[in-house]
Amino acid sequence: MTSISQTAERHMGDAPLAGRFAEVRARTLALCAGLEPEDYVVQSMPDVSPAKWHLAHTTWFFEHFVLEQHREGYRCFDGAYHHLFNSYYYSAGQMFPRPRRGLLSRPLVKEIRRYRDHVDEEVQRLLQQNGEPEIGQLVTLGLHHEQQHQELMLTDIKHVFSCNPLLPAVNDSLRSPPRGHPPEHHFIPRPGAVVEIGAAGAGFCFDNETPRHRTLLRDHGIGSRLITNGEFLEFIRAGGYAEPGLWLSDGWAAVQKRGWNRPLYWSDDCTREFTLGGERELDRGAPVVHVSYYEADAYARWAGARLPTEAEWEVAARDVPIEGNLANAAWWHPVAAPEAGSQFFGDAWEWTASPYAAYPGFKPLAGSLGEYNGEFMCNQLSVRGGSCVTADDHIRATYRSFFYPDARWQFLGIRLARDA
Ligand SMILES: [Fe+2]
């Protein structure tokens, strides 16, 4: 548990963590405010989980990893839920198959709400009664896990609604972001050096951000902002999706097999896009999102550039404040870069050229929680920076998320880099 933070220790056994717990748990429910019971059940593809499942799984995480192991005499809310709402923790037991989560019309949404209330009360009692640092660390981890699922819940329901010809808004109160004219794109020169990357500070981090270690950067330039819809449209109009020489072999195969010719959620004529606020006119100044790694890589090649490595990204991003178009801005959609904005945080997770792999000396957490990140360190790419639906206090320069190269349903965008 060494990488779960000292922040938890400062809060342990006292009011701040209890308050934080109540706040994050309530935020999850608030994000669902626009949903009706029918919406909570649908699963549109294997990567997507129903909203109801997210509400239950995040609760199971606290029940299994905190209450069952640290609250004496705790009795499970429902013994069947362990099977239904365990996600991928093989060492914790059998799990219901992910692609079939949409078949779980029962338990009802209102029963899941009662499950949440029950576990919330028990965790609060535990926090009052037990000031062990390990409890604070586990609850803190559970809250960061919950914030990850807050983002997934929104991107998943977006995909669900995009499959409905009515193209409903996830929340009718969402307003269209202001249209802007981003500053001209340029490359910021960065010197080659042996640098340290990874987490080493006092704040929370996941195990996959550690240990901090040295790595070599060559002289390079990194893009001053994200690539826009308008710029990606030029790639489309130049025949980018029809030119095999621009694509990785697996990417070209994906283009052929899936018929990709534009980002996910764009209309056939590339003038409109589906958003969490319903279908809207495409904003050419806003960052392009919902592109796969293959599309990001092909665009970069077409533009005479490449994608940044995660070390290049981290070293550049740690020099700027952690602010941007994150979930609290409540656009829930990317917006054009402001005049002096670099967009390292918020708007879109940025594909990097780096495989998601263990840092030298990486040690996963002990026990079942070692499965949290470590077991995925193969065949995926690191993405950085958070998106327009990432919680504002859930992102940092060292944060590593990861997706398979063909993933498009997250807010995934493009920053360029190039060799000097
Ligand atoms: Fe999870």
Features:
alpha+beta, Four Helix Bundle (Hemerythrin (Met), subunit A), paralog of FGE (formylglycine-generating enzyme), 2 domains, three-stranded antiparallel sheet, about 30% helix, disordered N terminus, binds fe (ii) ion
Task: Characterise the protein shown here.
The protein is α+β, with helices and mostly antiparallel strands and 420 residues long. The chain folds into two domains: 11-162, Up-down Bundle (Four Helix Bundle (Hemerythrin (Met), subunit A)), CATH 1.20.120; 187-419, paralog of FGE (formylglycine-generating enzyme) (Alpha-Beta Complex), CATH 3.90.1580. Helices cover 32% and strands 11% of the residues. It contains ten helices and eleven strands. The strands form four sheets. The chain has a four-stranded mixed β-sheet with strand order 9-8-7-10. The protein has a three-stranded antiparallel β-sheet with strand order 1-4-11, covered by helices on one side. It has a two-stranded antiparallel sheet with strand order 2-3. β5 (272-275) and β6 (278-281) form a beta hairpin. Mean pLDDT is 94; it is low at 1-14. Fe (ii) ion binds at residues 57, 87, 145, 149.
